[in-house]
């Protein structure tokens, strides 16, 4: 409790992304404006209208787990487990998981899609070799709580747990749920975040059929264009992002140095359409407003908003108008233009970016915004170059999920 308001302190950040593995490498590349977009290599995209993605090309699961674990897990689990280990190492919190303390450590690790790659592989095995040849670990590779389960087993977590699956909002929701555990006193430490590995034939073909992805195969780095007049859809990506949250008493006991603190969260449902967000942006606006109310923070204090910013015509306009309502002067950086859209992991990645921005007092740049789309609000978009922000005190992360799910979290400088 601080100034009458509960807070959860971010003490560790672990990211496996298309521009770097680990907090330092990822953050350096993000500030440098590096792009994670390129040709698809995780499967043969010949014949697909879309042949580009943002893959974690530097990630090797053997760097984070033994051979048997790697063989028995889907790529989304591998990304989540690696990010969790990186986050705990970054926080210096391994000792919190020993003995009876393990019961006071919570675990919230979501996935929008689960083991879709393993599902496709299993179906291929049935079709070509017969059901008797299915891998005995097929079910545990596919289940969407697999990443959470393996993190719990590998790290010895015994406190409350959950595996949210609110599509592209589940990473933000996971952080919000982690904040709730700290706020209620149900845990002293919470490992929270999300991972997804959707660069698979079925998922790419499905999003092509939805006409949601950019087809700019000749220019991968310029393909995702949030809020730009020429926005044509997102670039599919993969990632794992995990943060360690702690109560104030845990931070003081360990002498930890937080990156930031989470002081509010909000969740809403559009009840509008299974694929497209509310065209007036009412759901995402309410999520942000609820989060700010819970944090007891006025919109005018928000210095940086990390938006969903997927580069779709259906989402960019309503979301930008909602942000304009919250604070027309806030800085905006839509990092999917650099990182691609990692589905459920995206909110966890972007919340971690907010925490790092508050700690370092610098907002990373977005790419590819040249001419603002007519339907998008005039805002302070941070384009091409990072911006020093010595007065940055409050950041807001907000995400939309397919199906009309919205989640937002407020972060303040610790």
- Assembly form of the protein: single chain
- Which superfamily, in CATH terms, is the homologous superfamily? Thiolase/Chalcone synthase
Number of helices: 13
The counted number of beta strands is 16
End-to-end Cα distance: 13 Å
Q: List the secondary-structure elements in sequence, H or E.
A: EEHEEHHEHHHEHEHEHEHEHEHHEEEEE
Instruction: Say what the CATH topology is.
Output: Peroxisomal Thiolase, Chain A, domain 1
- Into which percent range does the helicity of residues fall? 25-40%
User: Would you state the CATH class?
Assistant: Alpha Beta
How does the helix and strand content classify structurally? alpha/beta
Report the uncertain regions: none
User: What would you say the CATH architecture is?
Assistant: 3-Layer(aba) Sandwich
Strand and helix layout:
Blueprint: E1 8-17, E2 20-21, H1 23-31, E3 37-39, E4 52-54, H2 67-71, H3 75-91, E5 105-110, H4 116-129, H5 138-142, H6 146-155, E6 161-162, H7 170-184, E7 189-196, H8 201-209, E8 239-246, H9 248-254, E9 260-269, H10 282-295, E10 304-306, H11 313-326, E11 331-332, H12 336-339, H13 346-360, E12 362-363, E13 380-381, E14 387-388, E15 394-401, E16 405-412
Parallel strand pairs: 5-6, 5-7, 10-11, 10-15, 11-13
Antiparallel strand pairs: 1-2, 1-8, 1-9, 3-4, 7-8, 9-16, 12-14, 15-16
Helix pairs in contact: 3-6, 7-13, 10-11
The gist of it:
This protein is of the alpha/beta class and 414 residues long.
Description of the molecule:
By secondary structure, this protein is α/β, with parallel strands linked by helices. It has a single domain, classed as Peroxisomal Thiolase, Chain A, domain 1, CATH 3.40.47. The protein is 33% helix and 19% strand. It has helices at residues 23-31, 67-71, 75-91, 116-129, 138-142, 146-155, 170-184, 201-209, 248-254, 282-295, 313-326, 336-339, 346-360; strands at 8-17, 20-21, 37-39, 52-54, 105-110, 161-162, 189-196, 239-246, 260-269, 304-306, 331-332, 362-363, 380-381, 387-388, 394-401, 405-412. The strands form three sheets. Strands 1, 2, 5, 6, 7, 8, 9, 10, 11, 13, 15 and 16 form a twelve-stranded mixed beta sheet that branches. A two-stranded antiparallel ribbon has the order 3-4. Strand 15 (394-401) and strand 16 (405-412) form a beta hairpin. Helix 3 (75-91) crosses helix 6, helix 7 crosses helix 13 and helix 10 packs parallel to helix 11 (313-326). It is globular, with a radius of gyration of 20 Å. The protein starts with 7 loop residues before the first strand and ends with a strand. The relative contact order is 0.18.
């Amino acid at each position: 409790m601080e100034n009458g308001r509960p807070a959860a302190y971010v003490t560790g950040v672990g990211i496996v992304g298309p521009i770097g593995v680990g907090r330092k490498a990822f953050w350096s590349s993000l500030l440098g404006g590096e792009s994670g977009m390129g040709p698809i290599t995780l499967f043969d995209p010949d014949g697909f209208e879309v042949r580009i993605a943002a893959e974690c090309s530097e990630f090797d699961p053997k760097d984070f787990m033994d051979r048997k674990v790697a063989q028995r897990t889907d790529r989304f689990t591998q990304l989540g487990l690696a990010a969790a280990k990186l986050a705990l190492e970054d926080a210096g919190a391994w000792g919190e998981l020993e003995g009876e303390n393990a019961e006071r450590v919570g675990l919230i690790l979501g996935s929008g899609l689960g083991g879709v790659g393993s599902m496709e592989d299993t179906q291929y095995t049935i079709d070509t070799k017969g059901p008797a040849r299915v891998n005995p670990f097929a079910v545990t590779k596919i289940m969407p709580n697999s990443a959470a389960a393996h993190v719990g087993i590998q790290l010895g977590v015994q406190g409350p747990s959950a595996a949210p699956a609110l599509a592209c909002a589940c990473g933000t929701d996971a952080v919000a749920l982690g904040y709730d555990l700290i706020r209620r006193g149900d845990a002293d430490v919470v490992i929270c975040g999300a991972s997804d590995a959707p660069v698979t034939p079925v998922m790419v073909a499905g999003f092509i059929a939805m006409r949601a992805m950019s087809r700019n195969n000749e220019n991968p780095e310029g393909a995702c264009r949030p809020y730009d007049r020429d926005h044509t859809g997102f670039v599919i990506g993969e990632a794992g992002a995990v943060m360690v949250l702690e109560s104030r008493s845990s931070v003081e006991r360990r002498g930890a140095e937080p990156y930031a603190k989470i002081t509010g969260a909000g969740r809403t449902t559009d009840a509008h359409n299974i694929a497209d967000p509310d065209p007036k942006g009412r759901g995402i606006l309410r999520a942000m407003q609820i989060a700010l109310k819970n944090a007891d923070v006025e919109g005018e204090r928000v210095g940086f908003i990390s938006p969903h910013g997927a580069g779709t015509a259906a989402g960019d306009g309503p979301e930008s108008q909602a942000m304009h309502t919250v604070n027309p002067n806030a800085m905006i950086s839509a990092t999917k233009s650099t990182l691609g859209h990692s589905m459920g992991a995206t909110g966890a990645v972007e919340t971690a970016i907010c925490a790092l921005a508050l700690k370092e007092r610098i907002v990373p740049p977005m790419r590819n915004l040249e001419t603002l789309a007519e339907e998008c609000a005039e805002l302070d978009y941070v384009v091409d170059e990072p911006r020093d922000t010595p007065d940055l005190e409050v950041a807001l992360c907000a995400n939309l999920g397919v199906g009309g799910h919205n989640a937002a979290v407020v972060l303040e400088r610790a």
